[in-house]
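Ticket 4471: requesting a sanity check on a complex prediction with AOY. Repro inputs:
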Amino acid sequence: MASSITENLLLVTDSYKVTHHLQYPPNTTAVYSYFESRGGKFPCTVFFGLQYIIKRWLTGQVVTKEKIKEAKEVYHLHFSNDYFNEDGWNYILEHHNGCLPVRIRAVPEGSVIPFKNVLFTVENTDPKCFWLTNYLETLLVQAWYPMTVATNSRYQKEIIAKYLHETADNLDSLPFKLHDFGFRGSTSVESAGIGGAGHLVNFKGTDTIAAICAARKFYACNIAGFSIPAAEHSTITTWGREGEREAFSNMLNNFPSGAVSIVSDSYDIWNACENVLGQQLKSLIENRNGTLVVRPDSGEPAEVVVKVLNILGEKFGCTKNSKGYKMLPSFLRIIQGDGISYESLAVILESMKKQGWSVENIVFGSGGALLQRMDRDTQKCAYKCSYALINGKEVNVYKQPVTDLGKKSKKGRLTLEYSDGQYKTVEEGKGDPKKDVFVTVFENGKLLKDYTFDEVRANAEIDLLKTA
Ligand code: AOY
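Returned structure tokens:
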């Protein structure tokens, strides 16, 4: 039984690429391509996820007699013709033992790189396999997704850090301030795992177990994320409208210690906060050995959050922290997991601050906007050929469409240089190898560099949290 749509790398490409081996100039012996973010929503991109793709699809004997046979059949039917490069793949099987004669060089995973810089390069290592470099584009460009999730999540970390810095005693709670609710809104278990791991590069709170599995399997991380017991509407509403108080007290009693989250908007969030939690269950909450996290889940987030804080503050009392902002008692917090995105976050944080509430009081949950509401254009990710060897001559290859100069591509062999705290892509092979930050991560079927999740996290850490 096949465990996924296909295990056959020969089928993991766009149809047209199957025909490209017949289209390059005669005597092409090298094709060299690179991946970049050409711009987009965020000025820098967190490089993350290529290692998953390499381990999942490219390492070891990925070409077999059976895979060639299957691909030949599929492409014969698909094109009603025999465009499939059977000889080329048989050559790899026979001369490379089914391992890919390709080199991939990349910036270290977790690096935060300004757009318009090269992030990785790909080239064939056997002159007969010039066609393979861009056959792999389809698969390799899918790195846009974990990178874009990690990037969007990191920019949310930056905003939260800024507001914590202004309104909280310290930044200790930052790693748990944005919790991943996105599993159900992802398009597949695989996507949730990959994207959720992108979020965990920046944070430690997740309900997306697939992300924990991805970090374990592909980044040697024993446990990348944590969670706490939490209610969903069904576990509250099955007690009936008149049973909400009993549903709440049942939660508090069945989880007598530690943090527990109770979704409180099933009927009337104001009544739930003021009367049920703030009066009827007040002493149960105060005497419990842990933190109750109240979860509103509807309405205009910026308004609901402040109103819930005001009610809870009135009922349970509050203090002022070292920055002069209001704090609920330590056994009481809130979590807003509805309508959270990079954009809405800033609005909510600002409205909390304006009304004197420390951001320490809240944790955010995010689903659709964290793992799904983005595409390859969010960071304008692209893979382009920049160099070739044709008839033994080096050729600088580029595109420069008059209809969109933003799509201009780089020329020649590329290095990514770091000096004076700045990244710069140097073109046409003119780079200084001593300043090059690229690492050869894959060559001829072998993974040459294996990043741990801890290394990725350290590379991606925001400046406010960096310890000298
Ligand atoms: N989880 C913190 C722990 C998680 C969740 C997951 C969709 C949690 C809710 C909570 O407190 O309330 C998927 C919606 C919510």
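Notes from triage: The chain has a mean pLDDT of 97. Leaving this open until the requester confirms.
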